């Protein structure tokens, strides 16, 4: 039986523990390892303390076959990765002449004075396979010790990623034989809650083996992660295609996008194909809806513009909502939403107009409770419509949910 490798990703740096920067390296590396069927069992972060780093390294050595360490290879006294590993392996540290020459050449070329501590970056373990750093100073290393593979990489993401792609992935290919691959597909849904979606899929989830099915609620709707294992790309394709078909057979009416696709990208593409345009009047959302659309490349062909009509004066003065509507129904009403959607469509000469008005909180407005939302939709040649909703959450959550509901309404319009 072929060996199943257990991997661990270990980041060194107090700045990670303090939350000053996010540990995006571990997430990125995990995705790469999945392609090689290498299971990641632990993500660990440890601060810049020699004893704690050494203790953490010892634990990793006892439980994992492949340990990937990022950070702690720089020139300062708190860069302790080498010293911590040496404390458990006793392998001599030597100066790597090619790396030292690169560092010296860089300082000569830039005219900066090289301080003595910069020599620290050229230190490597005597038995290491040294990985040349094309994007920075400190080299990476692969060290075999007591039937464990230790991989040391710089903490700077652009340096780490370049080294990982060029050196580590080919090495892992040889090490594992790429005997099994893992791939995930993300399916995105709107208009259905997590519990309702899980209920619809309970038979599939109960019987899941390979692929696995995992629902998850996000700020942008519900996602299902399908994860398959196979010996080849073709095998992965077949498993994931079959699983996706089974899921969509049950909840396909709510399906929006897949993997890196976004609902706004799909909306923009549909509008382009149908030669439609859109304009938005945003009170509650304050421009968030328009911002989502114009984040998509090519949105200028579709989005005519938007008006942030937060005050009553802008609603009546710029978008010409009749004062009678405001007096009788209020700014938070179906009538106001209808008028805003129709008028922004006409004024900006677009095919579709959408509007948002409501109460984000923390206080009631016009006797309407927090979370009351109205979205207006005006399509040229069709009857104007308004939709009422009641959302829960804090101020920003309500605004974000309103934007997502607006995107859902537009998506359902264009997909017909």
Number of E-state strands? 17
Main beta sheet strand tally, sense and closure? 6 strands, mixed
Instruction: Show unreliable segments.
Output: none
Instruction: For the largest sheet, list the strands in their spatial order.
Output: 2-1-3-8-7-6
Number of domains: 3
State mean pLDDT (0 to 100 scale). 93
If classified by CATH, what would the architecture of the largest domain be? 3-Layer(aba) Sandwich
- Class of the largest domain in CATH? Alpha Beta
Total helical elements: 15
Strand content: 15-25%
The portion of residues assigned to helices is: 40-55%
CATH superfamily of the largest domain: MoaB/Mog-like domain
**CATH topology-level fold name of the largest domain:** Molybdenum Cofactor Biosythetic Enzyme, Chain A
N-to-C span = 52 Å
Global Rg = 28 Å
Morphology = elongated
Class inferred from helices and paired strands: alpha/beta
Describe this structure in words.
The protein is α/β, with parallel strands linked by helices. It has three domains: about 5-175, MoaB/Mog-like domain (Molybdenum Cofactor Biosythetic Enzyme, Chain A, 3-Layer(aba) Sandwich); about 180-260, Alpha-Beta Plaits (2-Layer Sandwich), CATH 3.30.70.2860; about 265-415, Maf protein (Alpha-Beta Complex). It has 15 helices and 17 strands. The protein has helices at about 15, 25-35, 50-65, 80-90, 95-110, 155-175, 195-200, 200-205, 235-250, 265-275, 290-295, 310-315, 325-330, 335-345, 395-415, and strands spanning about 5-10, 40-45, 65-70, 95, 125, 130, 140-145, 150-155, 180-190, 210-220, 220-230, 255-260, 280, 305-310, 350-360, 370-380, 385-390. Strands 2-1-3-8-7-6 form a six-stranded mixed sheet, with helices on both faces. The two termini are about 50 Å apart.
């Amino acid at each position: 039986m072929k060996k199943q490798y257990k991997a661990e990703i270990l980041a060194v740096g107090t700045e990670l523990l303090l939350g000053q920067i996010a540990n995006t390296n571990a997430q990125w590396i995990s995705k790469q390892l999945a392609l090689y069927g290498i299971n990641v069992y632990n993500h660990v972060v440890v601060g810049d303390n020699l004893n704690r780093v050494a203790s953490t390294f010892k634990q990793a050595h006892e439980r994992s076959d492949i340990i990937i360490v990022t950070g702690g290879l720089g020139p300062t006294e708190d860069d302790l990765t080498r010293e911590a590993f040496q404390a458990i392996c006793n392998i001599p540290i030597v100066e790597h002449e090619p790396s030292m020459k690169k560092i010296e050449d860089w300082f000569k070329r830039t005219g900066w004075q090289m301080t003595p501590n910069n020599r620290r970056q050229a230190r490597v373990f005597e038995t290491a396979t040294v990985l040349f750093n094309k994007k920075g100073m400190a080299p990476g290393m692969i060290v075999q010790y007591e039937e464990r593979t230790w991989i040391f990489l710089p903490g700077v993401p652009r340096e780490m990623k370049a080294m990982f792609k060029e050196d580590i992935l080919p090495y892992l290919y040889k090490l594992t034989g790429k005997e099994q691959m893992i791939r995930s597909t993300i399916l995105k849904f709107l208009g259905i809650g997590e519990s309702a979606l899980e209920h619809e899929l309970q038979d599939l989830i109960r019987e899941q083996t390979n692929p696995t099915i995992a629902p998850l609620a996000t700020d942008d709707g519900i996602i299902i992660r399908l994860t398959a294992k196979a010996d080849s790309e073709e095998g992965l394709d077949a498993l994931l295609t079959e699983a996706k078909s089974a899921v969509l057979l049950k909840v396909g009416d709510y399906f929006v996008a897949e993997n890196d696709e976004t609902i706004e990208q799909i909306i923009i593409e549909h509008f382009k194909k149908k030669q439609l345009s859109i304009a938005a009047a945003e009170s509650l959302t304050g421009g968030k809806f328009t911002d989502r659309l114009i984040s998509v490349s090519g949105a200028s062909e579709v989005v005519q513009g938007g008006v942030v009509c937060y005050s009553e004066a802008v609603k009546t003065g710029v978008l010409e909502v009749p004062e009678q509507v405001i007096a009788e129904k209020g700014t938070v009403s179906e009538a106001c939403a209808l008028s805003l959607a129709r008028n922004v469509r006409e004024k900006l000469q677009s095919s579709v107009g959408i509007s948002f008005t409501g109460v984000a909180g923390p206080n009631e407005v016009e006797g309407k409770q927090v979370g009351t939302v109205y979205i207006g939709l005006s399509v040229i040649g069709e009857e104007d419509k308004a939709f009422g909703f009641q959302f829960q959450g804090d101020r920003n959550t309500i605004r974000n949910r309103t934007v997502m509901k607006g995107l859902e309404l537009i998506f359902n319009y264009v997909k017909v």
